[in-house]
Amino acid sequence: MRKTVALLISFLCCFPLAAQDLYEQYIATYSDAAVAEMYRSGVPASITLAQGLLESGMGRSTLAVQANNHFGIKCHGWTGMKVYHDDDAKDECFRKYESVEDSYKDHSDFLRYKDRYKFLFDLEPTDYKGWCYGLKSAGYATDPSYANKLINIIEKYRLYEFDRPQTAASRNQTTTRKQTATRNQAASRHQERKPRESASVRREIPESPSSMEKLRKADGFSFSLSREVYERNSVPCVLAFGGESYSSIAAEYELFLKEILRFNEEDADRELKPGELVYIRPKKNFSRKGLDKHICDADGENLRDISQRYGVKLKSILKMNGLEADSPLREGDVIKLRTKSMKTRKTLLAALPVLLLLAAAAAYFAGSWYIDRYRPNFTRDYVLYVYPDSSPESVRDSIVRGAAPRSLRSLDRMLRKECSQPKPGRYVIDRKVPSVYVARMLRLGWQTPQTLALSGTIRSRERVVKLISRQMMVDSATVDNALRDNDFLAKYGVDSTDFFTIILPDNYQLWWTASIDEIFARLRSEYDAFWTEERVEKARLQGLTPYEVSILASIVQGETRREEEYPVIAAVYLNRLHRGMKLQADPTICYIYGYTLNRVLRKHLEAESPYNTYKYAGLPPTPINAPSKACLEAVLNPDSHDYIFFCASPAFDGSHRFAVSYSEHMKNAREFQRALNARNRR
User: DSSP string of 25-90?
Assistant: First the structure.
């Protein structure tokens, strides 16, 4: 026995370590691909790795194993190989890749070229939290906690270190030996790919290498895979080989694609010509001494060519010459490359107080920058509701009252800078977040889901209107009009008389800003999900359709609030239906009179209505309330008995007494009547 216990304890202790090993293994295997994609596309490596870990189950999901699909990307617009897998629906189509690296590349392009993810690339590459919240807001996943799951993975395994691989070697010494060895092994592979500019002797390229041939003659350049780093205007640069692009050179020198495009003043990645000059650091604002101007000597020359040739920023050239980017150039035109010399030493000394003042201002702004972006600024958690007509001022005042910021200036700065007009929504402000995240949350619409609780007895249109309008942004008039509009309800398979059918009392996770269409679409989807093939078959065995099950369940729910009696009462009514008897259900009489009756009397049984089950055999036309899932299950799985009659128990505890014969039933009814009369006399 002791051995068994010891083995069990050992297994339980080792299990988390095994799972951790799988995470570390995945990171070590695919970190290179993630970093390469970061340089090529601009998607942070931490985001790619975290999503890959989460979506692929550490590379062990069915899609990852069978299709090399580590991100669960479906076939929309896909012309390549495909696989079919059960996800949100049965046999959904997913993309299949030749390799995991292809999956990583397609994931980057998926984010890069989808308009809804475009705003993410305006964030700092190291802002992994902004990326996580942004992915959730853009609809990458339906899981409300998707962003937090990604953040937890990134922070637990320090994946943010891969967003700047050159710092990956400096690890916290408290990390376990295994983690450190695995992570440093992956990081070392990136270190090998660091820029070779430090190991190269920078040489100035001749001023006008118009072609590879001219370059060879002038500078003895050897076209080989051993690339040298040159200087143009004291700016490091390289010469492109054939078949290269900005993205490939960016990866070689560990730059983000958008960085190298900015250095070279390009808008997009493209294939480079052999010998084309590519800057790997920002160009200067003016040319070095001795190169004050450029004289155009040929037609077809443009201002960007001149900018690249001399290592001077295009915008500086435009400013110095008063030109536009597309200004035509003619032979003999003089283009200024340098302004007047720097001011004298006396001028610099005179400007020293100003420089000191500027330094003080810089220190102030640096402190403000840190406070705005990193220091928690709120003393209380707060749920903020922003309506479409809410002004920025009213939203700000609500935050001040509810979240009580430590620094009001910090909040005001970030709201002015990041959020000129907050998006409507329900937002949960965590007291641990800085001002910048609240501002971005409001600007980008990072809502926290609202729980729509459809619970209790729902037996009137007014009740449905109240429940929805009190918990969601949609107003009561909109909900009421929708429940009266048969054209609107027809989209969801119901009308104004039987909308109870698709309302299953439960808790629904929705955005607070959801429209009435989105709310009813969700209700319909939950209803359809409930009616599985198995339940439809059970209904058929009872001689009922799903719609008829809802009708009978609504009557059962109207009879009792005791859930344990649902299957018994459901069986009573099914026995009556199978014997061709009238249901004689009091709840249907209460429904006719709008649930205003305290007691059902004989005179009420004469009401002329298709819902009068004392007059008409079979089921009423529609449900008389919104039956719970428990009631529906009771009709599908009724008790097996011969009871045909039941009446309330004289104990007045909400239970009932059941009978097979009418005489037994009348005995039970008289006992209840005597108890009721005695109770009324007291």
Answer: HHHHHHHHHHHHHHHHH---HHHHHHHHHHHHTTTTSHHHHHH--SS--B-TT--S-EEEE-SSST
DSSP 609-646: STT-TTTS-S--SS-SS---HHHHHHHHS-------EE
554 within 8 A of 623, measured Cβ to Cβ: yes
Tokens encoding 382? 């707060």
Condensed to tens digits (0 to 9), the pLDDT of residues 511-547 reads 999 999 999 999 999 999 999 999 999 999 999 999 9
Please, are residues 247 and 257 in contact by the beta-carbon 8 Å criterion?
yes
H/E element, 382: strand 382-386
Domains and CATH numbers, the chain: 2-191 (1.10.530.10), 196-336 (no CATH), 348-444 (no CATH), 450-530 (no CATH), 533-641 (no CATH)
225's tokens: 């895979």
Buried b / exposed e along 234-249 (16+ C-beta atoms within 10 A): ebbbbbbbeebbbbbb
Dihedral sign for Cα atoms in the order 457, 462, 464, 467: negative
Torsion of CA 59, 60, 66, 71, to 10 degrees: -40
Q: Are residues 286 and 306 in contact, defined by beta-carbon separation less than 8 angstroms?
A: no
Q: Which DSSP letter does residue 499 get?
A: G
Burial 195-225 (b: 16+ CB within 10 A, else e): bebeeeebeebeeebeebeebeeeeebeeee
Cβ-based burial of 263 (10 A; exposed 0-12, middle 13-18, buried ≥19): buried
Q: Please choose, from the candidates 396, 420, 418, 419, the residue with its C-alpha nearest in 3D space to the C-alpha of residue 408.
A: 396
What are phi and psi for residue 465, nearest 5 degrees? -60, -45
Cβ–Cβ < 8 Å for 607, 589: yes
Please state at what angle helix 2-41 crosses helix 100-113, rounded to 10 degrees.
50
Q: Count the residues in the chain.
A: 682
Model confidence over 211-228: pLDDT tens digits?
333 443 433 333 334 578
Q: What is the pTM of this model?
A: 0.50
Task: State the Cα–Cα distance between residues 298 and 29, nearest whole angstrom.
Answer: 53
Q: Which two tokens stand for residue 583?
A: 């249901």
> What band does 659 get if pLDDT is binned at 50, 70 and 90?
very high
Pairwise CA distance, residues 551 & 562, whole Å: 19
What is the bridge-based pairing of β-strands 230-232 and 235-239?
Answer: antiparallel
Average pLDDT, the chain: 84
Residue 418 burial (CB count, 10 A): 18
Percent of the chain residues past pLDDT 70, beyond the cut? 86
Both structure tokens of 632: 């529906």
> 164 or 138: which carries more pLDDT confidence?
138
Pair 630, 566: CB distance under 8 Å: yes
Cα 628 from Cα 494, distance rounded (Å):
18
**pLDDT reported for residue 269:** 86
Contacts of 247 (CB under 8 A, 6+ apart): 39, 40, 41, 257, 269
pLDDT at 430: 93
The kind and range of the H/E element at 320 are helix 314-321
